[in-house]
Structures are given as structure tokens and as C-alpha cells.
Write a structure and sequence with these properties.
This protein has 450 residues and is α/β, with parallel strands linked by helices. It has 17 helices and 18 strands.
Length: 450
């Protein structure tokens, strides 16, 4: 029986763990709190729970030594630590996170050790790579080329669960979503590189109509330029990757980013109420006038979306802060966990949408779309958990069965990886699948393509 070490028993781990146990692998689940790992295993005979802290190097050595493959669902900053140990012991490794510079630096050592370290095999990154490459490779196989590529993804409440002013709920910690809102972005538009500084990220929004769902706000997601080489899009004039949110998110978040409420400097918060905390970040503000003072600072009316949303969150209330020490970002994160989590039985939704313009010999042009709309299971797994951990688990099985091979630090852009993973995702119960369309642009414009 092949043995898998799963590091991290967080909110997305359960579906992938269940898959591996059902496929007959022995899985050791380790978390800082052993009871969390044990709860995830639910007493399964093929599993074992353990505790491990990231500064326990000897403990990591022992855990890796007893495994055939290591899955890291830890925060991404710890992946290189785990990967270095896997390289030393020549053990396979899989993560769902972006390849960091520190992880990329281990590529040659992983090749020398003869091991595969597969990253970016979750949803975004992961399913986005695989579904995009499936279409790109098919177009190239038909003799065509991609001249425009746009890709969008968003984890959102299902329409019936969209019940708060923010149009958003969290099935994981809000911290990552909030900090991502301060990132800069780059993309290619009609042959020109567009650079968006962090403070202007949400000002770069456009509306996208997703078939079957309606309109969403879309804004740039990090650095799209790197995907020109990753996806083989050297002939494309437009390469854009974006994030999807419900309407009014971008205008409100732009003001909130500029408000100081996402600052990461730690402060003494002992004894503070929320309105005292909010007033403390506004020069000459008093708790009694904090709502009006913040509106003036942000140069918006007191009944604008940003102010209404923060009032709903409780930032102007007499309630005591849940922290005695921390940053404004910590306060926002704690409050969002409290106010913006899913209620029992509510569904989340994962939306992914790709748009391609392809040119073929003879001048024929086509628009191709590929759209995934996936919902969480009421009283069961969230869509986010399924779409992150199931691709990980399927890839783990294929690697341990010798059906995915290779060495070094890789991501799933090869058909040897994406074809079997996408096929199994589509065929499983509550399958994760894309709907594709193909439109002749000349014919769509009422022009005879011949």
C-alpha cells in the first residue's frame, strides 16, 4: 500500500483526502492541532493523524521518511521547506500553490534527485491551466494559433446564498483575498503591455457576462505576462487573466484599500471598540463622528457602498474588538470570518471562464469559450474544497501509479497531466466539467466566410 503524507488539515482538504482513502492509499494527516487531522480522517482505517509544527525540522524528516509522496496544503510560504526535505530524501511532492521563486530554485536539485514536484494543481492555479491548455493545444493541433486569450475565475456565493451587501462569503480565511487586493498587475492588451500599480487595481475593472449567470466585475489577476511562455501564446496580441466578483465590489474595495484598514502594522488594541479602532486610523477623528469622518477621508458620501459595507461589518459599532494586539488587516480578517462565513447548508460557487480568438490558415477566425460553473454540495463539500483538493488527489494517484512521470518542479500544462486529470474530474459524481462554444466570427458578423 502506497503511503501519502498530507500536511495541512484546512478547509479545502477533505474531498481530496476522502478520494485517496477510497482509492486504497494510506494517508497520514498532520496539522498543528492533531484533533483537526483526526476529525478529517473520521476514524478511517487507512489513515493516521499527527501533529507537527513548521519549526520542527526533525519531525518533518521523520514524517517525510515514512511517505512515498508528500502533499503540502500548508500556507505557500512553507512549501520550499517541505520541498527541500523531499529533495534530500528523494520523495515525490504535490502542492496546489503557485510556484514561488524559492520553489523554482529547487528545480535542478529535484531533477538530480529524480523526483517530481508538481505544483499549481488546484483550481486557480490548476484547473485554469489544464482547461486553457486543452483548448490551446487543440487549436494548434488543427493548424491554428491563438491571437487573443482572456481567462477569468472567481469563488463566490451561489446566487441564493448571496445575502450580504459585500456579495461575498468566505469558506477559508479572508486574509489572502484582502492582501491580494493590494497586488499590482500586468497584462497584454492589443500588443501593448499594461502595468497596473496596486492602489489602482480595482480601478481597472470591466464587466464580463458569463453565460448562464449574468454580469460580473472583472479585474486583473497578478502578472499575466508570464503566461505567454507558459501557455505558448507568443502570437497572441492580448493575454489577460482576471478575477471575478459581484457588482460594486471593485468601487468599494478601491476605497477600502486606500483607507488604511488593510494595513499590516501591528498595534496595541486592548480595550478598544470597533468605532474606537476605526477612528484611530483617521486624523482628528472621534468615535462619535467616525462614520462621517471616514466618509470624508475617502471622499465619498456617508451613504456610499464602502461606508454602508463597513457599517454592516460593524466597524462603527460599540462592540469590543476580538483582538488585544494586531494589525488593521487582522481586525478586518477576524470580522469577516465572523460576519461573512457560509451558513449551514449554503452553497458556494466556482466560476471559470476562458475566451479565445483563434486564427486558422486561409484567414478563418473563431471565438472559442470554455466555461465552468460549479456549486458546493448543501451540507457537504464546498465547491472551493472540491476544485482545489480533487485535482491534487487525482494527480497524486496518477503519479503513484506511474501514469504521470517526470522530474523537477512542474505545473500541469502538459497533456500527459491535464488529459487524465480533467477526464476524471468530469466523470466523477457531481462532475467538474466545462461547457465549450465555438463561433465562426465572420459568420457571426453576417459575412460569408468564403
Amino acid at each position: 500500500m502506497k503511503k501519502v503524507l498530507l500536511l495541512g488539515a484546512g478547509l479545502v482538504a477533505r474531498p481530496g483526502l476522502r478520494y485517496l482513502l477510497e482509492k486504497g492509499f494510506f494517508v497520514t494527516v498532520v496539522d498543528q492541532v492533531e484533533s483537526k487531522a483526526a476529525a478529517l480522517l473520521e476514524g478511517h482505517s487507512n489513515g493516521r493523524a499527527g501533529a507537527w509544527n513548521t519549526d520542527d525540522k526533525q519531525g518533518l524528516q521523520d514524517l517525510v521518511r515514512d511517505a512515498d509522496l508528500v502533499i503540502s496544503l500548508l500556507p505557500a510560504v512553507y512549501h520550499p521547506l517541505v520541498a527541500e526535505e523531499c529533495v534530500k530524501q528523494k520523495k515525490l511532492m504535490v502542492t496546489a500553490s503557485y510556484v514561488s521563486p524559492a520553489m523554482r530554485a529547487l528545480d535542478s536539485k529535484a531533477k538530480e534527485a529524480g523526483i517530481l514536484i508538481l505544483n499549481e494543481i488546484g483550481v486557480d492555479p490548476g484547473i485554469d491551466h489544464m482547461s486553457a491548455m486543452k483548448v490551446i493545444d487543440r487549436v494548434k493541433g488543427d493548424g491554428g494559433k491563438i491571437v487573443s486569450f482572456r481567462s477569468y475565475c472567481g469563488g463566490l456565493p451561489a446566487p441564493e446564498a448571496n445575502t450580504n451587501p459585500w456579495g461575498y462569503k468566505f469558506s477559508w480565511s479572508p486574509r489572502g483575498v484582502l492582501t491580494a487586493g493590494k497586488n499590482s498587475a500586468r497584462y497584454l492588451e492589443n500588443g501593448k503591455q499594461i502595468d497596473i500599480p496596486g492602489p489602482e487595481l480595482f480601478a481597472s475593472m470591466h464587466i464580463l457576462n458569463v453565460p448562464g449567470l449574468g454580469e460580473f466585475e472583472a479585474y486583473p489577476n497578478r502578472d499575466s505576462m508570464g503566461y505567454i511562455d507558459i501557455y505558448g501564446l507568443q502570437e497572441a496580441a492580448t493575454v489577460f487573466r482576471g478575477t471575478l466578483r459581484n457588482k460594486n465590489w471593485c468601487a468599494a474595495m478601491k476605497k477600502i484599500v486606500n483607507s488604511g484598514l488593510l494595513d499590516e502594522r501591528e498595534n496595541d488594541l486592548k480595550g478598544m471598540t470597533f468605532k474606537h479602532f476605526t477612528a484611530s486610523g483617521i486624523p482628528n477623528s472621534r468615535p462619535e463622528t467616525v462614520k462621517k469622518d471616514l466618509a470624508a477621508k475617502l471622499d465619498v458620501p456617508a451613504d456610499s457602498h464602502p461606508i454602508q459595507w463597513l457599517e454592516w461589518l460593524g466597524l462603527f459599532s460599540d462592540e469590543k474588538l476580538p483582538l488585544e494586539k494586531g494589525s488593521p488587516l487582522d481586525v478586518m480578517t477576524a470580522r469577516m470570518v465572523s460576519k461573512m462565513s457560509y451558513a449551514e447548508g449554503e452553497r458556494d460557487m466556482l466560476v471559470m471562464h476562458h475566451e479565445f480568438i483563434a486564427e486558422f490558415p486561409g484567414g478563418k477566425r473563431e471565438k472559442l469559450t470554455s466555461t465552468l460553473i460549479d456549486f458546493g454540495i448543501p451540507h457537504g463539500d464546498t465547491s472551493m474544497a472540491r476544485t482545489v483538493s480533487l485535482p491534487v488527489a487525482i494527480a497524486v494517484r496518477l503519479i503513484l501509479e506511474g501514469k504521470i512521470k517526470g522530474t523537477g518542479v512542474q505545473i500541469p500544462v502538459s497533456p500527459l497531466i491535464y488529459t487524465p486529470v480533467l477526464k476524471e474530474l468530469e466523470e466523477m459524481e457531481n462532475g467538474i466539467h466545462f461547457n465549450e462554444t465555438r463561433t465562426n466570427l465572420a459568420a457571426a458578423a453576417g459575412i460569408n466566410p468564403n
